[in-house]
Design brief:
mainly alpha
């Protein structure tokens, strides 16, 4: 059975994430959290068409980047006061729920 993703594609994605994390306006924790949430969202979608899955992944990734702070604030209101929530967790939740 062929692999669903090639090693060169995985290396390219890892390189793109590494290069994007060096951008001064992007927090690497939010970047990785949005990526993880978008992967979760894309892998659990019931779409079978590759183009739609990629579009869903990209949309979810962007939502995770943009809504991480807002999601942290909403989670802080829902959880007890003693719990501190990381922005990466907010990005994962925002991307997964997009």
């Amino acid at each position: 059975m062929p692999e669903p993703i090639s090693a060169s594609t995985a290396n390219g994605v890892a390189l793109a994430l590494a290069l994007a994390s060096t951008a001064p306006w992007l927090d690497p924790i939010i970047l990785l959290g949005a990526f993880a949430g978008a992967l979760l969202f894309g892998l659990t979608s019931e779409e079978k068409i590759a183009g739609r899955v990629i579009l869903l992944f990209l949309t979810s990734f962007i939502c995770g980047l943009l809504a991480a702070d807002f999601t942290v604030q909403m989670l802080a209101k829902l959880l007890p006061a003693g719990i501190e929530i990381n922005k990466g967790v907010g990005a994962i939740v925002a991307a997964a729920l997009a």
